[in-house]
Specification:
It comes from Patellaria atrata CBS 101060. Helix content is 29%, strand content 15%. The protein has 448 residues and is α/β, with parallel strands linked by helices.
Length: 448
């Protein structure tokens, strides 16, 4: 199993929500809180055996440990079998029939066999866990809508607590609330589980008999069934290297349905059949000129510059670093005055933006060429996510993940460059990943 980066926790970054479970002792008195909890309906009771904590202000972890009488006393096997489940639309569904649960009490089992199946897995020696994307919840203490966030968090914790109480087996729940390394299909929650249970190395896990069950399998519409909202659960299991099943396949024993992925990274690796042609078709033609890079964020412009343009003498002008177009034009002008060719590493999405650079080329009486990067929107999003979350090996400039608006904004403004604008030529570059074997293994996982 490959993991993309070390996710070791620092104690200062964990913010506990309740104290860790203590070993039960005989009590000679009963507290008023215990009396009040006794008369509450089961759905409203706060389980005494669940503890909560927060990691990096984005990952919520709940761990349920039944009382000693119901816990197994057998030692854990050396190689653990792990059964992981999504939460919503896999273990439970809103009892109200709504798409989303209204409150902590609005839930029912996805199917009547769910609780007995999970209990049997525990009896069979499986480590049972839940891993769920919960983007509607914020764990940040500085949230602008703190009251609403607290209500959503309380509702989710209430549902989880009720479910775990009904199951009454040792189980941990991991809820990814941010768009970071913990969000499926990224493997941060899995890595956190391995650390929590002291499972170090592939020899401590029985990957062959471990599996993940989730509803986001990328399935297309069939009969009365709608399309899956994504393929992130299937991709998550593939990243880990364990088997994947949908709830219908696992609980109801239905046959698998066809599925599609929004992106298959392996198609963009060197040597892949049917993949795009290799980069490197651009060659230097003029002693002094401007090369205008045009393409979406994440399309490979900066990597292309460092690999092919910088070695032949082009100086880079980038608005992310210089902060304004006027500053970029000023720096480019100074470089041209010194007899140095310029590569403009910006998106340059429309003719109006490109015209500034064409006028500069005319002013200095030098040719201007265009390199057009053709990567699809999903491929660009994949590249951006890998760059931001995979560590320094693929992010030498330390860039953070771009908002969705960066991609949609480019798409809305984009107009394909035309020679009539004044370019000497236009070279199209179809993306193909280039890097070391270690970088390839990271990049080829599913990230979006």
């Amino acid at each position: 199993m490959n993991t993309t980066r070390s996710l070791k926790r620092a104690s200062a970054e964990d913010r506990g929500l309740s104290p860790p479970p203590l070993k039960r002792k005989q009590q000679s008195t009963t507290t008023s809180k215990a009396v009040a909890n006794f008369f509450k309906p089961v759905s409203q009771k706060e389980p005494e055996d669940i503890t909560w904590r927060i990691v990096h202000e984005s990952l919520l972890i709940g761990r349920y440990q039944p009382n000693e009488n119901s816990s197994s006393t057998e030692p854990a096997p050396k190689r653990r079998k792990i059964a992981v489940f999504d939460f919503d639309s896999t273990l439970v569904t809103p009892a109200s029939g709504n798409v989303f649960s209204r409150d902590a009490n609005d839930w029912k089992w996805w199917h009547g066999t769910v609780p007995t199946t999970l209990k049997r897995l525990h009896e069979d020696g499986y480590l049972v866990a839940v891993m769920s994307n919960q983007g509607g919840i914020s764990l940040s203490s500085g949230s602008k809508s703190l009251k609403a966030d607290q209500k959503r968090l309380s509702g989710f914790k209430g549902r989880v607590s009720a479910v775990l109480t009904k199951l009454d087996i040792p189980i941990s729940v991991y809820a990814a609330t941010g768009k970071d390394q913990y969000r499926k299909p990224r493997v941060g929650m899995w890595t956190e589980l391995l650390e929590d249970y002291d499972l170090d190395g592939i020899n401590s896990i029985d990957l062959l008999n471990s599996f993940f069950v989730g509803d986001a399998g990328g399935r297309s519409r069939a009969h009365k069934s709608a399309n899956d909202h994504s393929c992130c659960d299937r991709d998550f299991a593939a990243n880990i290297g364990i088997d994947f099943k949908t709830p219908e396949e696992f609980f109801l024993k239905e046959e698998p349905r066809p599925f599609t992925r929004v992106l298959e990274p392996t198609e963009y690796l060197p040597g892949s059949s049917g993949g795009p042609p290799d980069n490197g078709r651009f060659t230097k033609m003029n002693s002094l000129d401007i090369v205008l890079l045009c393409g979406s964020p994440g399309s490979g412009k900066s990597s292309f510059y460092w690999r092919y343009l910088e070695p032949v003498g082009y100086r880079r002008v980038n608005q992310d670093l210089l902060k304004s177009r006027d500053k970029c034009l000023k720096v480019a002008s100074d470089l041209l005055k010194n007899g140095e060719s310029v590569a403009v590493d910006n998106t340059n999405a429309d003719a109006e933006t490109r015209e500034f650079w064409i006028k500069l080329a005319t002013q200095f009486n030098v040719p201007i060429r265009c390199i057009l990067f053709t990567a699809s929107a999903k491929l660009c999003e994949h590249n951006d996510t890998v760059r931001a979350l995979s560590g320094t090996t693929l992010n030498p400039e330390g860039r953070t993940m771009l908002p969705k608006l960066a991609f949609t904004g480019f798409a809305s403004r984009y107009r394909e460059p035309d020679l009539k604008e004044g370019f000497q030529d236009i070279t199209k570059i179809d993306f193909k990943f280039e890097g070391t074997e270690e970088q390839k293994a990271i990049w080829a996982k599913y990230w979006i």
